[in-house]
Design brief:
It holds the Pfam family NAPRTase. By secondary structure, the chain is α/β, with parallel strands linked by helices. The protein has 2 domains: 167 residues, nicotinate phosphoribosyltransferase; 200 residues, nicotinate phosphoribosyltransferase (Alpha-Beta Barrel), CATH 3.20.140.10. The strands form 2 sheets. The chain has a 6-stranded parallel sheet with strand order 5-4-9-8-7-6. A hairpin with a 2-residue loop joins strand 10 and strand 11. Helix 2 packs antiparallel against helix 6, helix 7 packs parallel to helix 8 and helix 10 crosses helix 11. The two termini are 39 Å apart.
Length: 392
């Protein structure tokens, strides 16, 4: 079966889950799947996907896995104890062929946020692997050749010795086997230039550092949980600071667009958080604006971290590193271009939160096509509240 451990997911699922356990254990949410790649007939494989989900919901954390989690400084004992009792419940998933678009599938996840938050990453990994094992023949030799070429370029180009990358590719990997095979190769090829992975299972297996803080859904949920919509980002960031007391200090900047984020990310947050993560829009423009914002709020840009994670490849990493080095600290998370680069065209699939406590929530991306919400009235209201134009 594809998923063989509940740790086979991204770290930020656990860090957000702990915050939910302690602060919003009763929140009820809904997630929705979307395939952005046209012409993909997933419906013919729906039985295979369903069987993999059944297996996923049979898994439990092992004693060894829980001991590993207890060793992560930012996870609290009561949360790990909770994980010892936890399992994913199939009753929260509704998977069916699309009634309106032949070949497409509809997948909704509805239930307590605390009990549904871990579904996203393994479900996407399942759908990816089911698709590729039925539609392509893996060429692992080609994958290794491409991987080594990327590593050689980064490792052997003068001036990039301090450029660091991490693997962020769990959700859209070609397969679990390739993901697990690729990580040691990358570590051996890059040495200190490779700093770890977002995948907790492989971090544990290969003694790598797990990376991650928060995802879009965390800030989206506060559109329904916060005191009022306009203060939702502030409420989410303050709740995060209360939970982690200065640890895991990378904020996500594009849930309702950069303009709105900068208005909310005031001097207090500029000094409190270690840095920010980019996930949509022009990264060069974004980085310049973030560094100017830190400086205007009396936070030394050289002490702050800019984390880039949107559609990266090695060439883009090197251009960004060359542009920002010496002005701040920079970090890079590469996903699909590492874990799904064996030849076949990767799928562009996502699972996004669309409701919290019965109210619509949304992400208004700085990149066209990345926004997701099924309530046009709410989108208009959200834009109005945050003073945004109608282009997103």
């Amino acid at each position: 079966m594809i998923i063989q451990s509940l740790l086979d997911t991204d770290l930020y699922k656990f860090t957000m889950m702990q915050a939910v356990l302690h602060q919003h254990p009763g929140a009820i949410v809904q997630y929705r799947f979307k395939c952005r790649t046209p012409g993909i007939d997933l419906a013919r494989f729906i039985d295979q996907i369903s069987a993999e989900i059944d297996h996923l919901c049979s898994l439990r954390f092992t004693v060894e896995e829980l001991d590993y989690m207890r060793g992560l400084r930012y996870l609290k004992p009561d949360f790990v104890d909770f994980l010892g009792l936890f399992h994913l419940d199939r009753k929260y998933i509704d998977l069916r062929p699309s009634a309106s678009v032949p070949g497409e599938i509809e997948l909704d996840i509805s239930g307590p946020w605390l009990h549904t938050i871990p579904f996203e990453v393994p479900l996407l990994a399942i759908i990816n692997e089911v698709w590729f094992r039925n539609t392509s023949e893996p060429d692992f030799a080609e994958g290794e050749r491409r991987l080594q070429a990327k590593a050689t370029l980064l490792r052997d180009t003068p001036g990039f010795e301090s450029c660091r990358i991490a693997d962020y590719g769990s959700r859209r990997r070609y397969s679990r086997h390739w993901h697990g095979h690729m990580l040691p190769l990358l570590r051996d090829a890059l040495g200190a230039q490779f700093v770890g992975t977002s995948n907790v299972h492989f971090a544990r297996l290969y003694d790598m550092t797990p990376h991650g803080t928060m995802a879009h859904e965390y800030l989206q949920a506060f559109q329904a949980l916060g005191p009022r919509l306009r203060d939702s980002q502030v409420a989410a960031l303050e709740a995060w600071a209360r939970e982690y007391r200065g640890d895991l200090g990378i904020a996500l900047s594009d849930v309702v667009g950069l303009e709105a984020f900068l208005r909310d990310f005031d001097m207090y947050f500029c000094k409190l958080f270690d840095g920010v993560r980019h996930d949509s829009g022009d990264p060069f423009v974004w980085g310049d604006r973030m560094l100017a914002h830190f400086k205007a709020n009396r936070a030394d840009p050289a002490s702050k971290i800019l984390v880039f994670s949107d559609g990266l490849d090695i060439d883009k990493v090197m251009r960004l590193y060359d542009y920002f080095r010496g002005r701040c600290q920079v970090a890079f998370g590469i996903g699909t271009n590492l874990t799904n680069d064996l030849g076949p065209t990767p799928l562009n699939i996502v699972i996004k939160m669309v409701r919290c406590n019965g109210q619509p929530v949304a992400k208004l991306s700085d990149s066209p096509g990345k926004s997701m919400c099924d309530d046009l009235g709410y989108l208009a209201y959200l834009r109005q509240v945050f003073g945004l134009d109608d282009a997103r």
